[in-house]
């Protein structure tokens, strides 16, 4: 019986792959054809072909990315229909549906049906593929009249197989085994802000990624041109998750870590937690406003200016009035400067004219010529710049943190000690908490080159021309696209976006990444508990419609500027307008380890979400107590045992930041290139990390060096140690020379 069913599924899935190959061949053929004829014809023809080429390329990339485990489920419905579920939708040439996209409404019951609420499903079948071959099938029989003698329920096999598999250093998708509570969140409505709170390993990251893919699929019209932004804690984390969305058939999501949210800035330097906390405070917004106002200065007294040998006087009163008028425009600093300069130039020109007339040159003086003289005067230029200098965000922020007198003037609410903490050399590299300050500054300063507006206007005009072209081409294209299997209706906007002149042809995602003022249609934030108020302020600016999916775990907060409750974190930006969902099952950490982590947190006085672990592990947490000074030696000694225990899997050593270099060096002396240092070393099977780098990642085995130091270093929070203890999927070992924090040992 089972063998016959398996054989059936194998042949069906072979058919699906045959169809995938056929579509791929078709796209390659069409792409070749478009490329061959690309340089011929009118501008409109050419741009139409460019648009086709981009669409074919995208579709081909999508078809290539979904090859692995293309299909993973089948539903047997009350109606007798058999419905296959997979990464994308597939149909025959005559539009007979072969497989439904997992995100389509018809696929929802695959994740939601239970024996109590069957939703018209008699049987749910998981297809477990290796490469292109069906290796096994597992059935949930929901309608018990279907049970044949001797047949048994095999509910959680696919899930447990996924959970027990060896880690690779890269996150995989969970599309075949999404659980009902996760599915509800993935498919919740687009608008508003949704907070997903969940303990470690509850699938928050997985849910965030699948939700981004779901939203783009379901609301393509609304989201494709504005885009979806996915924000994570670090570049290493972005690397860890980067393959998930393509494997789900989505390539259009813009991904950025918090250090890369401002185009042109890559913030990698690390600073003290105290400085980060100060810079994250919401009153830094006022400090930035003060810093800008501080650059709109009045001279100490009236000044004399030489214009072509004539002495003019610029009074403090005149400057003050021009400043008031410029500020009253409400424009950003660099743009308001135009008003300021224009007023004073006019007044000085007037003064010059009066002077010349009074000296007997008659009233023939040519005013435009005089205006040129005033504008050309070095004294005038220097004075106007001293009063209202055009500024870049970088210059404003670096001056503020490198000049004590400026900092004292713009941040009077900070104590001397606090200001001392913020001071640094002018050429110091940027840190993550500088990014929201730079963004705030850019917002307040506006375009540096005010003529940039003209270039922008020219680009806009070109785009409008493209749009008109696109509208003409579109009716015939939609038909052809449908024929060629590209889903969704194409809008003139989208087509125009593909139409940008060659060489400048950027996708929406690429353009969004280079444009600070881009407004996204939706933002997904992972590890959101770490964000400071200033980082929230930046993100809300990126999505003015406030459509957010916010995932995190308050108990895992380790950054000093992070949140201690969702209400407190979100109130300034969203008021009460957000809803909360909770994930309650831990898929990563085995029961024994998860319980030790919760006991440790509780003993330290912290209440944490304690999700129920879905499986027991083979091992209790192991503890080695060693003499002071023997920590690193012990790490090296146990490594053989650890790597053998997780045979072929990954082992992470999580150490206090100060101990990471020597631990990595000692391990490398024995294990050579197998040892990676810092996050992002996904190719090695032994990785040495500090707790911050370990955030969001997971490993088969974890060795924690000096747990008490992780607790002490976190400023009274359990975050660091709690994060470290909840990374393993199989095995945890703690090596301690100081007394072990309470609760770890039962
Ligand atoms: N439904 C599922 N099917 C298979 N695997 C799952 C499922 N849900 C979660 N997992 C797996 O559990 C592990 C933990 O998931 P994830 O990293 O998303 O959790 P998290 O809540 O973000 O954890 P943390 O807050 O600790 O970083 C991952 O390996 C993920 O693939």
UniProtKB/TrEMBL annotation:
Coiled coil: 460-487
Domain UvrD-like helicase ATP-binding residues, every copy: 177-590
A Pfam family this chain is assigned to: AAA_19
SUPFAM superfamilies from the UniProt entry: P-loop containing nucleoside triphosphate hydrolases (SSF52540)
Residues annotated to bind ATP: 198-205
InterPro entries on file: DNA_helicase_UvrD/REP, P-loop_NTPase, UvrD-like_ATP-bd
Keyword terms of this UniProt record: ATP-binding, Coiled coil, Helicase, Hydrolase, Nucleotide-binding
PANTHER family membership: DNA 3'-5' HELICASE, UVRD / RECB / PCRA DNA HELICASE FAMILY MEMBER
Protein name listed in UniProt: AAA family ATPase
Organism ancestry: Bacteria, Bacillati, Actinomycetota, Actinomycetes, Micrococcales
């Amino acid at each position: 019986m089972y063998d016959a069913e398996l054989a059936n599924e194998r042949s069906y899935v072979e058919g699906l792959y045959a169809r995938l190959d056929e579509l791929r061949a078709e796209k390659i053929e069409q792409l070749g054809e478009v490329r061959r004829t690309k340089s011929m014809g009118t501008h409109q023809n050419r741009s139409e072909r460019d648009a086709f080429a981009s669409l074919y390329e995208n579709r081909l990339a999508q078809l290539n990315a979904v090859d692995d485990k293309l299909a993973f489920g089948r539903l047997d419905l009350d109606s007798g229909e058999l419905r296959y579920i997979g990464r994308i939708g597939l149909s025959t040439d005559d539009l007979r549906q072969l497989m439904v996209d997992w995100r389509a409404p018809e696929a929802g019951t695959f994740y939601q049906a239970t024996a109590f609420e069957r939703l018209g499903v008699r049987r749910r079948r998981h297809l477990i593929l290796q490469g292109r071959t069906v290796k096994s099938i597992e059935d949930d029989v929901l309608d018990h009249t279907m049970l044949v003698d001797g047949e048994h329920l095999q509910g959680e096999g696919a899930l447990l197989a996924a959970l027990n598999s060896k880690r690779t250093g890269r996150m995989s998708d969970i599309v075949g085994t999404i659980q009902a509570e996760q599915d509800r969140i993935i498919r919740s409505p687009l608008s508003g802000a949704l907070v997903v709170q969940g303990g470690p390993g509850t699938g928050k990251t997985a849910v965030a990624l699948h939700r981004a893919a779901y939203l783009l699929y379901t609301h393509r019209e609304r989201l494709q041109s504005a885009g979806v932004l996915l924000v994570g804690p670090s570049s290493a984390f972005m690397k860890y998750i980067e393959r998930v969305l393509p494997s789900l058939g989505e390539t259009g999501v813009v991904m950025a870590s918090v250090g890369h949210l401002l185009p042109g800035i890559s913030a990698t330097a690390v600073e003290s937690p105290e400085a980060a906390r100060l810079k994250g405070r919401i009153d830094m917004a006022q400090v930035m406003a003060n810093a800008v106002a501080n650059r709109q200065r009045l001279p100490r007294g009236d000044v004399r200016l030489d214009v072509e040998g004539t002495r003019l006087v610029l009074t403090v009163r005149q400057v003050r009035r021009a400043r008031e008028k410029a500020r009253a425009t409400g424009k950003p600093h660099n743009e308001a400067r135009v008003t300021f300069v224009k007023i004073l130039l006019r007044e000085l020109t007037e003064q010059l004219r009066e002077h010349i007339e009074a000296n007997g040159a008659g009233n023939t003086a040519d005013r435009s010529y005089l205006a040129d003289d005033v504008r050309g005067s070095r004294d005038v230029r220097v004075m106007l710049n001293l009063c209202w200098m055009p500024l870049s965000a970088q210059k404003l922020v670096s001056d503020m943190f490198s000049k004590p007198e400026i900092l004292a003037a713009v941040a009077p609410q900070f104590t001397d000690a606090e200001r001392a903490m913020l001071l640094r050399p002018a050429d110091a590299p940027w840190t993550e908490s500088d990014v929201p300050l730079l963004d705030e500054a850019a917002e307040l300063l506006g375009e540096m080159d005010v003529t940039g507006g003209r270039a922008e206007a020219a680009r806009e005009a070109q785009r409008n021309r493209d749009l008109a072209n696109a509208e003409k081409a579109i009716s015939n294209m939609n038909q052809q696209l449908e024929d060629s299997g590209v889903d969704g209706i194409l809008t003139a906007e989208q087509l125009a976006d593909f139409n940008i002149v060659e060489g400048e042809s950027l996708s929406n995602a690429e353009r969004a990444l280079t444009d600070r003022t881009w407004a996204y249609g939706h933002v997904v934030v992972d590890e959101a508990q770490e964000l400071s108020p200033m980082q929230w302020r930046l993100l809300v600016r990126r999505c003015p419609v406030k459509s957010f999916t916010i995932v995190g775990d308050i108990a895992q907060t380790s950054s000093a500027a992070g949140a201690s409750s969702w209400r407190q974190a979100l109130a300034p930006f969203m008021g009460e307008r957000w809803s909360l969902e909770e994930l309650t099952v831990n898929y990563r950490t085995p029961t024994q380890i998860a319980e030790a982590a919760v006991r440790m947190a509780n003993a330290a006085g912290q209440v944490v979400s304690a999700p129920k672990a879905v499986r027991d592990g083979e091992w209790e947490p192991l503890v080695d107590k060693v003499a002071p000074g023997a920590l690193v030696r012990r790490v090296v000694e146990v490594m053989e045992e650890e790597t053998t225990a997780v045979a072929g899997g990954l082992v992470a050593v999580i150490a206090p930041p100060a101990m990471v270099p020597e631990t990595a060096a000692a391990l490398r002396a024995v294990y050579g290139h197998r040892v990676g240092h810092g996050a992002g070393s996904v190719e090695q099977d032994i990785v040495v990390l500090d707790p911050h780098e370990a955030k969001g990642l997971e490993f088969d085995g974890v060795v924690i060096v000096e747990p008490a130091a992780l607790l002490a270093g976190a400023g009274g929070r359990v975050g660091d140690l709690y994060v470290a203890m909840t990374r393993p999927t199989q095995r945890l070992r703690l090596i301690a020379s100081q007394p072990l924090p309470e609760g770890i040992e039962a």
